[in-house]
Write a structure and sequence with these properties.
single chain
Length: 341
C-alpha cells in the first residue's frame, strides 16, 4: 500500500494510484462503446456517451501531466497517448498547463497561457465585430457554444506560428500527436460512428470543458486570491476530477484527484481565507448567474490602458502587481486556454 504524506501525496518509489488507473480503463471502455454499440443503437446517444468519455479523458490527461497515476512521466504519457481530443497534443497541453501553474502570472494575457483576458490596449484596437465576438464568448452560454470554435482557431493559429518558427519541441509534440491520431483514425475507420459523428462528440466535450475553465481564475492584485473554489460534488465534479476545488489543486498539484475533497474538507477555512472567499456553492449557481451574463470584462481590469512606459521592464517584477510591467505586443494573445483541455 502506498504511504501518503499529510496532504495525500504518494511516498515510496512503487506507489501506484489504482483509482486513476481504474477510471482510465473505464473511460477507454466507455469511449469504445460510445463509438460502436451505443452509436449503432442511437447516434445521438452515442455522440453524448463519447463526448462524456472524451471529457473524462481530458481530465485524466491533466492528471497524467501532474505525475499520476505513476511516478514515471513516460509511463503516464503512454497511458494517455491515443489522441481522443484531436486538436491538442498532450505535450503541448503539458507545456502550456505547467506554465499556467506559475501563480504570480495567473490571468496575465501574455504570461498565463490559460488566461481569458486581453490586454486593454489590444482590446481597444479590435474591430467592433471582434469585440462583440469576444464579449459573447465571455458569457457561459457563449463560452460553450462559440468557445470551442474560437479557441481552437486561435490555438491552431498560434501553434502554426511556432511550427513555422522551427521550435523543435513543438514539432516533436505534434509528431507524437499524429501517432495518437492514427490510432483513433484506425478505430473510426471500422467504427459505426465515423469522423463526422466524432467531430460532434469532440465539440460537445469541448463545450463541457468550458464549464470548468469559465471562472477558474479572476483578476486580483494578490496571486493567492485568483483561484476559485466550487463546492460541487455532483457529476461535473467527477468529470473534472475535482478540479472545481481549484485553489487546492494549485497549492498541491501532486495530490491525486480522489484525495482533493478530503484535503479541502480538512482545512476548508484556510483555503477560503487564502483565496479571499472566491467561492461558489455549485455549478448550478454558476449557470444561474452567468449563463447569459458575463462575469468579467474581456480587457484585463488591472492592466493599464494608456501608452506603454518608456522605462525597460524590470528583470523581476513585483508578483503582487505584475500587470503594469507587460509589454504591448500589438497583437491579440493566442488564447491557447480556449483550445486546450
Amino acid at each position: 500500500m502506498a504511504v501518503l504524506d499529510p496532504v495525500g501525496r504518494r511516498r515510496g518509489a512503487d506507489a501506484v494510484e489504482w483509482p486513476t488507473l481504474a477510471l482510465l480503463a473505464a473511460t477507454y471502455g466507455l469511449w469504445a462503446l460510445g463509438t460502436t454499440m451505443v452509436y449503432s443503437l442511437s447516434p445521438i446517444l452515442g455522440i453524448a456517451v463519447t463526448a462524456l468519455a472524451i471529457t473524462q479523458f481530458c481530465s485524466l490527461q491533466h492528471e497524467a501531466l501532474h505525475g499520476h497515476p505513476f511516478r514515471s512521466a513516460w509511463l503516464n504519457e503512454a497511458l494517455v497517448f491515443p489522441a481522443l481530443f484531436p486538436t491538442v497534443p498532450y505535450g503541448r497541453f503539458r507545456a502550456t498547463h505547467l506554465a499556467h501553474h506559475h501563480d504570480p502570472s495567473l490571468t496575465d494575457p501574455y504570461d498565463d497561457p490559460e488566461s481569458n483576458y486581453l490586454d486593454p490596449r489590444v482590446w481597444a484596437g479590435l474591430a467592433p465585430w471582434k469585440q462583440a465576438l469576444f464579449s459573447a464568448n465571455n458569457t457561459l452560454l457563449g463560452r460553450m457554444l462559440i468557445g470551442p470554435i474560437l479557441g481552437t482557431a486561435l490555438w491552431l493559429r498560434g501553434e502554426a506560428r511556432l511550427i513555422r518558427s522551427g521550435q523543435r519541441a513543438v514539432w516533436r509534440d505534434w509528431g507524437l500527436h499524429l501517432g495518437g491520431l492514427a490510432l483513433v483514425a484506425l478505430w473510426l475507420i471500422a467504427a459505426p460512428m465515423g469522423w463526422i459523428g466524432y467531430g460532434f462528440a469532440v465539440y460537445a466535450a469541448a463545450a463541457v470543458l468550458k464549464i470548468r475553465t469559465f471562472l477558474e481564475h479572476r483578476a486580483h492584485e494578490a496571486a493567492r486570491a485568483r483561484t476559485v473554489i466550487i463546492e460541487d460534488r455532483g457529476p461535473l465534479a467527477l468529470l473534472f476530477l475535482n478540479n472545481n476545488l481549484h485553489v487546492v489543486h494549485h497549492m498541491h498539484p501532486q495530490v491525486p484527484w480522489y484525495r482533493l475533497p478530503s484535503v479541502y474538507a480538512a482545512s476548508r477555512d484556510h483555503y477560503l481565507r487564502r483565496n479571499e472567499g472566491y467561492a461558489y456553492d455549485s455549478y448550478a449557481q454558476i449557470f444561474a448567474r452567468y449563463f447569459l451574463r458575463a462575469k468579467d470584462p474581456v480587457p484585463h481590469p488591472l492592466m493599464p490602458l494608456g501608452p506603454e512606459p518608456a522605462a525597460p521592464e524590470p528583470a523581476a517584477p513585483d508578483p503582487a502587481a505584475p500587470y503594469a510591467m507587460r509589454r504591448n505586443t500589438g497583437a491579440v494573445p493566442e488564447l491557447s486556454k480556449n483550445g486546450t483541455p
